[in-house]
Amino acid sequence: MKRLCVLICLITAFATSALAGVTVSSPKSGATVGSPVSFVATATSATCSRGVASMGIYVNDKLVYVVNGASMNTKLSLGSGTYMTEVQEWDNCGGATNVDVPIKVAAESGVWVTSPANNSTVGSPVRFTATATSTCSKGVASMGIYTAPSPDKRVYVTQGASLNTTLSLSPGTYNTIVEEWDNCGGASYKPVTIKVEGSNSTTITNLQARSGWRGWGELRPAYEICTDCSPEVTWAMNQTGGATKFSIGGTQSYSDVLWSFPVVGPSSLLNLPDSKKTLVPNTKNFIYDAWFFSSTIEASQVLEFDISQYFGGKSFIYGTQCRIAGGHEWDIWDNVNHDWKSTGVACKPANNGWNHVVIQARRTSDNYVLYQSITLNGVTHTLNKYYPADWAPSDWYGITVKFQMDGNYKQTPYTVYVDKLHLTYW
Asked: Which of 197, 221, 245 lies at the terminal end of a domain, its last residue?
């Protein structure tokens, strides 16, 4: 047993060290960008059990920015020219790692697209990252993406002078355009031609309106599921064919309700039993896309959006939760330690208004859960955080979509409407 433990620990340590370090999602190395320059990065430490203490940016060997924690998202105003920038992390044990990011800052105003590259071949979903500058003294108001040079092909708009999002596009060639609109009535754009290869992805739409959802209560401290938990926790679900109404109540504080819908596997409600057991183990990419609304959203301790995948005695839970009363921050699930890990990304959904959440995750070739990005109301945060899989009973098999509501310290009753819940996988 000790020998097995040592072997497992060594394998785990090697895998962790291979994944540790600094990951810079913006700007791209060697890119031409406008000012201010958007720096987005995350970090992990392979050697320090106490994790990353802080991160910083060097410009031409001069430290110009420092932030506490294992992630950064900031903008630096730089004049035109060529720069050697460096993003560095310092851990709580005295160690450090860094990544060099050479960039060129253009003098002229306009749109600067770092991804995708012009005339490139890409897979779907396609990652678009871009920044913009303007001669308007009031700056850039917003940016958008067109999938073709036609007004009715505008598919995405975000406020501000940068964008970072993914678009699900069918195979084919696209003459896309990334455009900026300034606060003086002007605009500029950059054409980007791309070829999207077929990913053989499948999208199952409007899961919230399909019959067969099951709900369970979860009572603290163990939070094991229960089917008859009244009056400690109560719940209801009302489907109308469009948006579905989910409600929670009860008497015991911090009690939860979990709803689950089996998509693939022996319990599939969509005639996808995967009897030959080829679909589930070959699926590596997931996009959870949904709209939600609540007129009393601050009564929610947490809203949770999950995908579960089981095969070969392994459990991959792609768990993502928005802490609302719990602190307005996104967390992701650590499968092995059965614990939520803070991302450092704020989660502030609108009350009394529709919110759009898109979560992208994948299973790596070495069976890690990779949390790629979270998009809330058009604002994308790249995570690129890895966690190993957990063990599961060998007869657990399939892919399941889940939605969970958590009660607050008073177990205040509240309702959430969920609409357009789509799952894309490939």
From this structure: 197
Q: How far apart are CA 381 and CA 332, in angstroms?
A: 13
Q: What is the mean pLDDT of residues 2-12?
A: 34
pTM of the model: 0.61
- Tokens 């605009």 locate to 187
Number of domains in the chain: 3
Cβ atoms of 261 and 401 closer than 8 Å: yes
Q: 29, 101 in Cβ contact below 8 A?
A: yes
Q: Which of 297, 253, 302 is nearest to 409 (CA)?
A: 253
Strands across the sheet containing 37-44: 21-26, 37-44, 71-76
The DSSP line for 40-108 is EEEEE-SS-TT-EEEEEEEETTEEEEEEESSEEEEEE---SEEEEEEEEEEETTS-EEEEEEEEEE-SS
CA–CA gap between residue 26 and residue 75 (Å, rounded): 10
What CATH code is carried by the domain that includes residue 50? 2.60.40.10
CA distance 175 to 205: 27
H or E stretch at 282:
helix 279-282
With 0-12 / 13-18 / 19 or more C-beta atoms within 10 angstroms meaning exposed / middle / buried, residue 23 is buried
- Which pLDDT tens digit goes with each residue over 81-123? 889 999 999 999 999 999 999 988 876 678 988 888 888 877 7
Question: Structural domain of residue 357, as residue ranges?
Answer: 202-425
